[in-house]
Design brief:
Strand content: 5-15%
Order of helices and strands: HHEHEHEHHHHHEEH
Number of domains: 2
Bound molecules: cobalt (II) ion
Shape: globular
Distance between the termini: 50 Å
Strand order of the largest sheet: 2-1-3-4-5
CATH topology of the largest domain: Beta-carbonic Anhydrase, Chain A
Largest sheet: 5 strands, mixed
CATH architecture of the largest domain: 3-Layer(aba) Sandwich
Number of helices: 10
Structural class: alpha/beta
CATH superfamily of the largest domain: Carbonic anhydrase
Number of strands: 5
Helix content: 40-55%
Radius of gyration: 19 Å
């Protein structure tokens, strides 16, 4: 994609939006009230808004390598805090995807420099679920399952934060774990049982 193309496309988009609604940008700029916080991978093939059919204003977005939620990541913690306490989103979605390069890299014994501490969080997911993963003989199936388990563990990291715990208790905030199947284009709800997960982790991570 060429840079000039981007500005041409942008102009076409502005013209199209104004053609549909002359007040579009006045309305867009007057309010920020998304219902959803989406945490996904930076992978260029997983364009979050497009695959959800979302419009500007619908989704608060955070993307990083392999859709990680780390308590040491000031950006992630600030985004969750702002989305949940200030914007008061109704849903927090963690969305992974098959063929995730970050997850693949974490399955290999390679020194990737500054990426090591980031990918180590995924290696920790592998360690937690080692028995299940090592029982899968097909490498591709194992890779897919690690993508799913990584989503589950990042959802748990979301649940560990005080703001999310309060949101669940006070106003029915819900957390969702999804995978984008890059082979079919479909979003898959992993249907993670958060009530059970919460009960299991509550005695350790409960903050009130
Ligand atoms: Co990825």
């Amino acid at each position: 994609m060429k840079i000039e193309e981007i500005f041409e496309n942008n102009q076409k988009w502005v013209t199209k939006k104004l053609g549909e609604n002359a007040d579009y940008f006045n309305e867009l700029s007057s309010d920020h009230n998304p219902d959803i916080l989406y945490i996904g991978c930076s992978d260029s093939r997983v364009s979050s808004e497009e695959l959800m059919g979302a419009e500007p204003g619908n989704v608060f977005v955070m993307r990083n390598i392999a859709n990680m939620v780390s308590s040491l990541d000031l950006s992630a913690m600030s985004i969750i805090k702002y989305a949940v306490s200030e914007l008061k989103v109704k849903h927090v979605i963690v969305c992974g995807h098959y063929e995730c390069g970050g997850v693949k890299a974490a399955m290999m014994s390679t020194d990737l420099g500054i990426l090591n501490p980031w990918l180590r969080n995924i290696r920790d997911v592998y360690r937690i679920h080692k028995d299940e993963l090592n029982a899968i003989s097909n490498e591709n199936e194992k890779y897919k399952r690690l993508v799913e388990l990584n989503v589950q563990e990042q959802c748990i990291n979301v649940l560990k934060t005080a703001d999310v715990q309060l949101g669940i208790k006070k106003r029915n905030l819900t957390v969702h774990g999804w995978v984008f199947d890059i082979h079919t284009g479909k979003l898959i709800d992993l249907k993670i049982n958060f009530d059970k997960l919460l009960k299991d982790i509550q005695e350790i991570y409960r903050l009130d």
